[in-house]
Design a protein that fits this description.
By secondary structure, this protein is α+β, with helices and mostly antiparallel strands. It has three domains: 217 residues, FAD/NAD(P)-binding domain; 152 residues, D-Amino Acid Oxidase, Chain A, domain 2 (2-Layer Sandwich); 102 residues. The protein is built from 13 helices and 23 strands. Helix 10 packs across helix 11 and helix 10 crosses helix 12. The chain is globular, with a radius of gyration of 23 Å.
Length: 497
């Protein structure tokens, strides 16, 4: 009989684990409390696939190992799953002699970790690679292996590929308790009932300490670390050609400037440690945003005007004790596996972490990890209408007139794309919400942030889902787009009057 495995958490680590384990003859269940995958720490980070030269293997061996391996695996995975990715390389900027010593330190670390192509270069060479670097830069460490990816797109791709290979998705499902008996895991108590499973993998991000405590393992706490960001409009200039940042500190890699795979300049993050009970605190502050702006000015020659900022946002990343990943299979309770504290470079490390977890299950839990026949590594992503040639656009419209109806002018997203996104959401079992459409099509991501297209997209969801417009939600229960039928409210007001 197949062993049943529940992965708690639909972030980048959980979805990567689901994809890897879908190769094996196991009954895989991905459990996520939100209406869709990738809505926790995953959706709001710097989007960098790090090379691995900033991790000290003597202090953080797992982080160093998984970062270098993950960078290499992402190249294959992005191709297999049709995930938008770019490889611009990274410049770590030194502004003084102390910074120069730091560059040499990270060069040695990178060489020990097996990072290829690292090179310290002077001002003239820097300018050739990145014209928008501040004239005060005296040197930089060039890391050509660095890449950029949209984390939520990667998460969706992993989940879709895992589902295509038999993994079962349980969205809007929250783990409330873990049943243990005779030293073994027996199952999970959820808001949708009891789920009997043999193995539970805790990849719950910010809440991994709470899930671990339910299994009787309460020897660590996860601290939320907030990072604030600026995101600029598509036409904001100047941008950067490379990933650029100053030399890191002991606490953080610092403020970055990147041009995302969608073509937007982004600056950030901050690194603000919050209390353990502030795991939903995602507000931006004047102090934090000013910090980003002032730091970016130190290593960039110029910034776009502030009126070209399309969005300011904050994300939370899980910070474990001593910054160390907690990845362990337990003898008691047998069947419980922690994948906790996956802080930066967690996005980069996710593929390697997933493969490590599969080996851990075989070696520590003594599970038979037999690969099943017919496993398919490929997944086709959505076509972006805005990226097609005129002839390709016309061919698509001739085949389906819905592609001729542009509903989001900023990002040139069509009705056809919204309908395709809804079909994909249904296959995944996710909630058909405004945000689930947003993260698949980029509608509402433009300069107007949905001011003009939100009502149009809500109408399409209403039509396709067969629900009243006021029941369409932004991101699930409790976030409904409207307040109800106005005629009903008017009749009630008249009756009460």
């Amino acid at each position: 009989m197949k062993k049943s495995v529940a992965i708690i958490g639909g972030g980048i680590a959980g979805c990567a684990i689901a994809r890897v384990l879908s190769k094996y003859d196991l009954d895989i269940h991905l459990i996520e409390k939100e209406a869709d995958v990738g809505w926790g720490a995953t959706k709001a980070n710097t989007s960098i696939i790090h090379p691995g030269h900033e991790e000290d293997a003597a202090i953080h061996p797992l982080r160093a190992k998984f970062c270098v391996e993950g960078n290499r695996i992402w190249r294959k995975w992005a191709e297999e799953m049709d995930i938008p990715v770019s490889w611009p390389g990274e410049l770590m900027i030194a502004l003084d002699d102390g910074g120069m010593e730091t560059l040499e330190h990270y060069l040695k670390l990178g060489e020990k970790n097996g990072v290829e192509g690292l090179e310290i270069m002077g001002r003239e060479e820097i300018k050739k690679l990145e014209p928008n670097v501040n004239e005060n830069a005296i040197a930089a460490l060039w890391a050509p292996a660095a890449g950029l990816i949209e984390p939520w797109e990667a998460c969706i791709a992993l989940a879709e590929n895992a589902a295509d290979n038999g993994a079962k998705m349980h969205l809007n499902t929250e783990v409330k308790g873990i049943a243990v008996g005779d030293g073994k895991l027996r199952g999970l108590e959820t808001n949708r009932g009891f789920m009997k499973v043999d193995v539970a993998i805790n990849a719950a991000g910010l809440f991994a300490d709470e899930i671990s405590g339910m299994a009787g393992i309460d020897d660590f706490k996860i601290c939320p670390r907030k990072g604030q960001y600026y995101l600029f409009s598509d036409d904001a200039m100047p941008k950067v050609k490379r990933i650029v940042h100053m030399t890191p500190t002991e606490k953080t890699k610092g403020v970055y400037a990147v041009t995302t795979v969608e073509g937007n300049l982004m600056l950030g993050p901050t690194a603000e440690d919050l209390d353990f009970d502030e795991k939903e605190e995602r507000s931006t502050t004047e102090e934090g945003l000013d910090y980003i702006w002032e730091n970016a000015r130190k290593f960039l020659a110029s910034l776009p005007p502030r009126n070209k900022v399309s969005k300011m946002f904050a994300g939370l990343r899980p910070e474990p004790p001593d910054g160390k990943y907690i990845i362990r299979a337990y003898e008691s309770p047998w069947g419980f596996v922690n994948v906790a504290g996956i802080r930066s470079p967690g996005l980069t490390a996710a593929p390697s972490i997933a493969e490590y977890v599969a080996k851990l299950m075989e070696e520590k839990l003594d599970l038979r990890m037999a690969e099943k026949e017919g496993w398919n590594p490929f997944r086709k992503g959505m076509k972006r209408f805005s990226r097609l040639s005129d002839s390709e656009k016309q061919h698509l419209i001739n085949r389906n007139p819905q592609y001729g109806n542009v509903v989001c002018m900023c990002k040139e997203v069509t009705e056809g794309e919204v309908v395709e996104a809804i079909e994909r959401i249904r296959k995944l079992g996710a909630g058909i919400t405004m945000d689930s459409i947003k993260f698949r099509t980029l509608a509402m991501f433009g300069e107007c942030q949905g001011s003009f297209c939100r009502s149009r997209i809500a109408s399409i969801i209403s039509r396709e889902a067969g629900i009243p417009l006021w029941q369409v939600s932004l991101k699930g229960d409790g976030t409904e787009y409207g307040i109800g039928d106005i005629k009903v409210l008017q009749r009630r007001e008249k009756d009460e009057g």
